[in-house]
């Protein structure tokens, strides 16, 4: 399948939102007019029709097959182009410096992007101009909207700004990295999807009855289904329209960290993780990112890591086409990159695995090995830019090592990260976390 074969059904986000708002107002109006019982009946009919529509869409997409985009691992492997598969047979001497670069790089990129996540380019640019800051940013933001508002359960929005951090601020994209670590520590490389689900149920906090906190989109849907008694694989797919969204590859970093220079194995582990609640290009995105991060420990150019990442996914899938397109259309800055990308991929969701991966690749290409330029240009493209900033920072950091990351990005964390997982301390020591990754990598690389 190629992009030219994708034909989007025209629809209006505005119209859908306005009609939903109309339903809400009519419900209140029916009560005020003394006919709340009848209004409630109409609303129940509306809910049933909506759920029927969702079920029809789910059946439609899950029934579709494409020879270029299989879902099982063995078929995926058969469609890969030639690749190195494994670059290193043992832990490299500079592994710890590169790991610290990747981990701190991920934390920094996530924190920078989270402050204005999903804000349009013009909004971010106007925000920077109002407070006399650089755009694309060259340091953490100094101001944020609603600074006293909560941020991921245990934090505040203010924690994301320069001068107000005492650790890596809490975020789902840093928590996913830890969940990967916890899964690998308990179950090793042979973990099953059921093992992973148990880790998620054990550590992710709940809000009320069977409502998961600290994760969103397809991850929250899966957790809610699991907590309500559904089993895998149904729990990962039921009422989940996020099968090709970005979240799958935001969970991929741990697998690259523990398989340095072994992109094939990193991609296999990411497949097991991501395919629990993603399909097709959502899964390929996770495999690509895990392989690219793994390769970044063994190369000296971020773009070489990207090209190696492509060798672990189907050669003719839509995701691979998007990355090849990005490689064939180099840009000078974030504005050119975003404009070119949306001119081609304009029908896609702003949280798509593909569009956001293109942001990462273009950001790495624009930034070269300059860490500040890489994450600044990447998050300036908008989209799900705490995720894109985190992954661009992870890949760049693994290539250049922590010693090459300017201290303004790492010193504010004071060597620790703020988390919200059940049964764990509120803060984790970053060096201790890196030590735990090192122990796993040393063990796994013996195979």
Automatic annotation (TrEMBL):
Its needed co-factors are: Mg(2+)
- Return the InterPro entries for the record: ADP-ribosylglycohydrolase, Ribosyl_crysJ1, Ribosyl_crysJ1_sf
| Any one Gene Ontology molecular-function term assigned to this protein's record | metal ion binding
Top-rank lineage group of the source organism: Bacteria
Binding site residues for Mg(2+): 384, 386
Q: Does the keyword Magnesium apply?
A: yes
Entry keywords, A to Z: Magnesium, Metal-binding
Chain coiled-coil ranges: none
Q: How is the cofactor bound?
A: Binds 2 magnesium ions per subunit.
What is this protein called in UniProt?
ADP-ribosylglycohydrolase
Which species is listed as the source? Murimonas intestini
Query: Upper taxonomic classification of the species?
Result: Bacteria, Bacillati, Bacillota, Clostridia, Lachnospirales
